[in-house]
Design brief:
alpha+beta; 3-stranded antiparallel sheet; 3 helices; 37% helix
Amino acid sequence: MVKTSSTGGVQMIVAGTQLAGELRRRRLGRPELRDCLSRTSASAWVPGAHLNEAPNELLMLAALSLADANPVRVEAVSPLTRGAPPDTSVSW
């Protein structure tokens, strides 16, 4: 959806799934962020008439705001600790 703002610029509403697809296409953001956006039903305002016109910085800002609004938190998981048993070592 594209809407003209009161200041004369054009803004569009972008769904989280669309934003995730554009971030994937541009190879921006962490995979965890894109996965979170793919599962959200939220949307964000992005300036421009087309998604491919928006600068990377604004897309990342919109993505982070949507991820922050999503109740499922985005947490980076290290491949070294994924599935590892808890540390039971005793430090002296």
